[in-house]
Specification:
5-stranded parallel sheet, thiamine pyrophosphate (chains A, B), Rossmann fold, 24 helices, homodimer, thiamine biosynthesis (chains A, B)
Chain lengths: 586, 586
């Protein structure tokens, strides 16, 4: 009734409080409409309906500029800024992404998706505004979970230093993806319990002004306080208490599970496709580590706010007790923590998605590798077939990690290999080891892996041949098998097939030997070519007569791509690869 | 008198307070002895003499474990832990490094040199201790300047969460390298002024216990408070007020200049070699930017705690006013800030040393490049001839940055090029641009640079030839010239010489053309080979008959190397390169 008339924030300003309450109800329906069909972030968006309505009622977007941290909770903002059809109209779902996007709307200022960046980015908008002499409001909206990240802290520190208008909305729903971890959260609780009045106030200690909103679903309270800070001439935090999943009972009661969901039935909350697959590397790793913990009290698993990535659901976390550490969304700390644990005799295993590991280059290099401390890092979703939205691409970790001295980065192709490598990584004491977890399902070779991984950089020749050698890394090994088979069947070429296993080093002896009976070496990697594995092989053969073809993903901005199409575009199919090979050797 | 008897912390425990006061005096002499001869961190070490003595008096290193943040202020710790000869004996200076080093002593637990890592690393030591069931004290010593870094915050947050023994000494000397920036520092001042008693306390807000030491040079007060927290069963912050440069008048009075110094005369403080060289890229950039600021109020220069890197001494900072921003030691924020400024119409220029840029991969990729915001980043000390201690190597930035989509990373060889690129970067609005500042002195070509940098990835052929093509990147261009000259003089080969300028892209047309009359292409880069520029050229020529030789630095741990020796080891001299070339083409 009201939603259909909302085409821009101007239309929100025309409503009365009662009408906005009705609008809230309609927005929740629209959210659940899309989320139940398409999946996405459920709890976070349901929790900010009234807050977002109030923000658009009080402020004047896009002159006043809003930056939503991570932006997974910006669906309501999208609905109110001319994009409601992405939520009400089944056919238009794909036109609107799950994160901020300036390509969609002038009301979005950045593409973002990693945590804790909103305040810093907003500081930039504010600085430019101040230099120009403008007077618009700059508003960052950040969840309490995201306050655990170092970049958020740097942002708060600098917002206070800058001293001019900046409104930082802290959306406190007492949750990260799972529960919050960190000393700060005690203070947030004290603030909530004292309704913002306790003397010891983290935000004030950071030099910021401070307001508290007790009921973040009460439009009167929201509008009243936000109006107070509108056009304020200095930085201020508005600390808002909300309920994650508000308005959808099953989401309110199961906050962790309803952070993000696959399509589900609105009436019951049941997933449309039951996700009972336990045969994933995530789950198998969790099982393996829990057993390792029982046998050795010095084994500790680490996560930075994403426990199920490493296979630790609530039940396993409880069993693991002190041997499971969630550092909050603080990947840099997670790596340094792992290094320190290893230095003092512990056996740390840090599990993280490739895209979030990007936060930790310096810690990997300095805290961990310069010290050569034996920590284990498991890198998930590192693949074309991993997450595919622009801010969660998992294709950059090879380039990121493989030029760090002392790092041993392994790429298993099969389940047996993976666990052999994991076992080695956790028992050896000589190297920091990272393992690139295959992302295209759990495939068994059926053969025991007897490799001695302490002998670094020895590639495994799985099929001896001539003319052409295929070096197929990690979860592209199976693609390598297909290419070898096709060459054999259709072109009578018996290619050599190699499972390199080691990303961080060259098997010089093998590569030298291949010169003898081969004309062409091809490399396959599930990652960006630039700075990747294949280029090292090309460099090795540079001064020789051997020709090299590197296959991987060309460096470009990727967003919501279709994996098979991207593979084809990069000639990463057996048909195309064989075509290219034949062209070269014939 | 007392120092000569100190061979381990045990010997410190035998002293009375008066004897320790005398020891303080002798330690200052020893410090100045080394620093005046060898150079190093002056102010920071003079400021922690009494604090370090007290720490070793109260605690039992190495069972109790100390982690010094950055560790540039750990000279006194080294003196007291069996390494005094590195400070008293001129011949032994080289045996002791300027940073923590487990290779030197069991009293050091990590090699480190980047800011804000101590608390996280200490958390790791503590976690392993807890799992083992040990009871030693874990102590992190961190300066107030380092508290601006996100990793320190993540550490504090998690130390509080862990809840077990951890003693965090905050050494508050009211300084970073230059002055401190950030809202937090207001609270630190309130804490100092209220002698630790004010209600609003940042550390307590982070969930930590807290003590304050008013006079960080008073051994009685230090020992008394440290004794209180010894064997404490929960995390605690001991906030100590010290004076940077204490005991050396000229250092106390000129804190910024005496943070780090070249060799000087003890009597006067005057540098032994007057450093009046203003013909550096640092200084020239500062001059250029200050002028740009006067013409355009939207130009803003950014530093993360190292203002003179971008040429902004105190005087220039004062003139620049609001157009110069020091974010404190918070490189991640600096990049995001730059992106936000650019998004709102400003012209940001962030200057930073290569090694510290390592902190910002994710912000470069996500905050800046995915948004394609036109910020400029100037990368200094990016060279074999930059800083050479293990935690400050400037050879990894090419691998780090050049596989990020949308990033335009330029490598000038001459002064004219540098300023042409800088001008283009600051005026264009299409790309985030980084410029790799030459590190081997300012060299003029004498010719105006008329390149249109908006046409990306066009390399410049500076000498047309045949057979051999030399692609010499950035400050190795002059080496390329020498190789070309030698080939011509001694081998009658007129090589093609190319100044590529663009690190982040291939000039496919040129490289294709080179296939015609050349057999061999060589690349020269002042950086690590793995993941670097040359490998992209190798990949391009992989499927062809062209041979490629890549020259750069092989990936390995480097520490206090001699640049010319490292170059030779990597065959980066004209003699060796010509040798290799002749072997291939003859």
């Amino acid at each position: 009734m009201y939603l259909e008339k909302i085409n821009s924030p101007e239309d929100v300003k025309k409503l009365s409080i009662d009408e906005m309450k009705e609008l809230s109800f309609e927005i929740r329906k629209a959210l659940l409409n899309r989320l139940s069909e398409k999946g996405g972030h459920v709890g976070p968006n349901l929790g900010v309906v009234e807050l977002t309505i109030a923000l658009h009622y009080v402020f004047n977007s896009p002159k006043d500029k809003m930056v939503y941290d991570i932006s997974h909770q910006s669906y309501v903002h999208k609905i109110l800024t001319g994009r409601k059809e992405g939520f009400t109209n089944l056919e238009k779902y794909k036109t609107i992404s799950g994160y901020s996007n300036p390509d969609e709307s002038e009301h979005d200022f950045f593409k973002l998706g990693h945590t804790s960046t909103s305040i810093s980015l907003a500081c930039g908008l504010a600085k430019a505004r101040d230099l120009k002499g403008d007077k618009d409001n700059i508003i960052a909206i950040i969840g309490d979970g995201s306050l655990s990240g170092g970049e958020a802290y740097e942002g708060l520190n600098n917002a206070a230093e800058a001293g001019t208008n900046m409104i930082i909305i802290v959306n406190d729903n007492e949750m990260s993806i799972a529960e919050n971890y960190g000393g700060l959260y005690k203070n947030l609780r004290e603030l909530r319990e004292s309704e913002g009045k306790c003397e010891c106030n983290f935000f004030k200690a950071m030099g910021l002004d401070y307001y508290y909103i007790k009921d973040g679903h009460n439009l009167d309270e929201l509008i009243s306080t936000l109006s107070k800070v509108k056009d304020i001439d200095h930085p201020v935090v508005v600390h808002v208490h909300t309920i994650k999943g508000k308005g959808f009972e099953v989401a309110e009661k199961n906050k962790e599970q309803w952070h993000w969901g696959s399509p589900f039935e609105i009436e019951t909350g049941k997933p449309r496709v039951a996700n009972t697959n336990t045969n994933t590397y995530n789950n198998l790793t969790g099982e393996y580590l829990l057993n390792a913990m029982k046998e050795d009290k010095n084994v500790v698993a680490i996560t930075a706010g994403t426990p199920t990535v490493i296979g630790f659901n609530k039940e396993r976390r409880e069993i693991a007790g002190k041997q499971f550490v969630d550092v909050g969304i603080a990947e840099e700390h997670a790596v340094a923590l792992a290094s320190g644990i290893a230095a003092n005799g512990g056996t740390p295993v840090y599990g993280v998605n490739s895209t979030f590991l990007q936060r930790t280059y310096d810690q990997l290099s300095q805290d961990l590798c310069i010290n050569n401390n034996p920590a284990t890092i498991l890198v998930y979703s590192a693949s074309v077939y991993g997450m595919n939205d622009v801010t969660h691409i998992g294709l950059f970790d090879i380039g990121l990690m493989s030029n760090i001295p002392n790092m041993v980065y392994l790429a298993p192709a099969f389940k047996e290999e993976y666990f052999k490598m994991l076992n080695w990584a956790m028992t050896q004491k000589e190297h920091p080891v990272a393992i690139r977890v295959p992302a295209m399902g759990v495939i068994e070779s059926g053969v025991e892996d007897t490799t001695d991984y302490s002998i670094l950089n020895k590639y495994q020749v799985t099929k001896e041949g001539k003319e052409v050698a295929i070096i197929a890394l990690g979860d592209f090994y199976q693609l390598g098998e297909k290419v070898a088979m096709k060459l054999s069947k259709e072109n009578n070429i018996e290619a050599t097939l190699v499972n390199p296993k080691f990303i961080t080093g060259i098997d010089e002896e093998l590569l030298e030997n291949l010169k003898k009976e081969h004309k062409l070496v091809i490399t396959l990697e599930d990652g960006i070519l630039e700075g990747g594995f294949g280029e090292k092989i090309s460099r090795f053969y540079g001064p020789s007569n051997i020709k090299v073809l590197n296959y991987g993903i060309k460096k470009e901005i990727l967003d919501r791509y279709i994996p098979d199409e991207l593979m084809k575009k990069n000639r990463l199919t057996d048909i195309q690869i064989v075509e290219d090979i034949i062209k070269i050797i014939k």
